[in-house]
Design brief:
17 strands; five-stranded mixed beta barrel; 3 domains; six-stranded mixed beta sheet; alpha+beta; 494 residues; 13 helices; 37% helix; OB fold (Dihydrolipoamide Acetyltransferase, E2P); globular
Length: 494
């Protein structure tokens, strides 16, 4: 039977409904949607960005730095630049020094530590730090001088890293760029973005950076990095009205930033270990449910080794992406669930690294997004202490407790974002009861049968007509009910 829909008509705008649901979900998951008064009082006392001077700071303001992010991003955490010297290419990644204005123990830090992450929903963004910080004073904004931590490394011809260093510097973002326009230009499908054209060296810069990113990507994939494609449709609102759902596609510009950040986070992790400091690592352990992954591959006519093998799994996924692109997002989601969630752990100097199974790297921390993730802010503090030859600012036990807390709060934030996505999908279909859609079966078990509509990209439960259906079957369905607060969408087979 269909689940009972909510019958009362909600007269609020779509955005208002989603905003209320998002706030409720935040509170239910132990997250705070609002900044406390003492944090706001600290914010009012801040009047300018932090500025480094002296021998401990390099002046790199003249370099052609750029940022590449989403079209609407205003909290800019990192910049990149390439330097060609002696037949080598050095990549410099500048990361905002958020700790300079959000010191440990401050009220702003306490709120950031509570939530540990910014939460992005169709009902609004709940930033980890107030926007005056994250989009202004601690953001690496266009044409603004900012203090930064620089991760510096050489990309060898085979894509491996060498010549690593970390230091503090003053930088200026010379070109604020967006993923989609940069990717379209790199692919030869669109003209050069205007900010690129305005900076004489920027076209050459981006060509070099793109080439280095492809080498880095090739190296990681040779080690067994997994190429997964999961769907997390983003709500599109116009004047408070929900008009559609969009799925973010991968592109060359996103790959460029991903590769540079993975490399930079490896540099930070190794630097801390070499300096005798602990680090908060981001890990994905070898999958305990590998036998389930082997069984999934077997059902698709493929064979995987009996023990976890990242290279074999990577090859299997690449083959399936080509063989069945329609179902690949659903296969990816199944594999993600069986791999297990990422988590934060503390690793002490000399301790064998756990590594990140999905990224195929051994040394990996989170340190390149300190405006939006608390572990990155912590990593910045650890690096700054090591650079200054100071003791670690956290006791090992406190750091381990903090790592566990960050893992738990990240899970809570993910659940909030997923809940609001489901409510947005139900809200979008609310006026389309009775309409028919093409769909694919994504789940079939005693607990129920689930289908994903091809357009718009919405998943729901098949409450009638599911007999004989199995995962991957194409089916025509009719929408019979939705429940916006709970995010339920119910179909029947037609």
């Amino acid at each position: 039977m269909a689940r009972e829909p909510v019958k009362a008509h909600d007269t609020r705008s779509h955005y208002q409904q989603l905003a209320a649901l998002a706030r409720q979900a935040m509170l239910e998951r132990g997250l705070s949607p609002d900044f406390p008064s003492d944090a706001l009082a600290e914010l009012r006392a801040l009047h300018a960005p932090a500025r480094l001077d002296g021998a401990s700071c390099r002046d790199l303001r003249a370099l052609p730095w750029c940022s590449i992010d989403n079209d609407d991003s205003r909290d800019l955490d990192q910049l990149s630049v390439a330097q060609e010297t002696a037949g080598q290419v050095r990549i410099l990644v500048a990361v905002a020094d958020v700790d300079a204005l959000v010191p440990r123990g401050s009220a702003l830090d306490a709120h950031a530590r509570l939530n540990t992450t910014s939460v992005y929903t169709a009902g609004g963004i709940f930033p980890m730090l107030p926007e005056r910080l994250s989009t202004d004073l601690t953001s690496l904004n266009d044409q603004e001088e900012r203090e930064a931590l620089v991760m510096d490394y050489v990309v060898r011809p085979d894509g491996s890293l060498g010549g690593e260093a970390i230091y503090r510097a003053m930088v200026v973002n010379r070109a604020k760029l967006a993923y989609n326009s940069v990717a379209a230009w790199l692919d030869g499908k669109a003209p050069m973005p205007a900010p690129v054209a305005r900076v004489p060296e920027m076209e050459h810069q981006l060509r070099i950076q793109d080439d280095c990113a492809q080498k880095l990507r090739g190296w990681r994939h040779a080690q067994g990095a997994l190429e997964l494609q999961t769907l997390a449709p983003r709500a599109v609102l116009q004047d408070g009205v929900l008009v559609g759902l969009e799925v973010d596609e991968r592109n060359r510009a996103k790959d460029l930033i991903e590769e540079f950040m993975v490399a930079a986070n490896g540099v930070a992790a190794r630097f801390l270990g070499a300096q005798g400091h602990p680090s908060m690592r981001r890990v994905v352990r070898q999958p305990e449910r590998w036998d389930r992954i082997v069984a999934v591959a077997h059902d698709l006519g493929e064979t995987l080794p009996q023990h976890p093998d990242a290279r074999a799994l990577s090859a299997f996924l690449a083959k399936r992406a080509l063989a069945d692109p329609l179902r690949f997002p659903d296969l990816s989601l199944d594999i993600v669930k069986m791999l297990g969630r990422g988590e934060y752990v503390v690793e002490m100097p000399g301790q064998p690294p756990i590594g990140h199974f999905g990224l195929a790297v051994k040394d990996y921390t989170h340190g390149t997004a300190p405006n939006r993730r608390y572990p990155d802010l912590v990593t910045g503090r650890l690096v700054k202490a090591a650079l200054a030859k100071q003791a670690c600012p956290y006791a090992a036990g406190d750091l381990a407790e903090l790592a566990a807390h960050c893992t738990a709060q990240e899970t809570a934030a993910d659940k909030v974002e997923r809940q609001v996505r489901k409510s947005a999908a139900a809200l979008l279909l609310e006026a389309r009861i009775g309409q028919r859609f093409d769909a694919v079966v994504t789940g079939a078990s005693p607990k129920g049968t689930w289908v994903r509509v091809l357009a718009p990209p919405v998943e729901g439960k098949l409450v009638h007509g599911f007999e004989g259906l199995d995962i991957g079957h194409r089916v025509r369905v009719k929408l019979i009910s939705v429940d916006v607060p709970r995010g339920y969408v119910d179909f029947v087979k037609v």
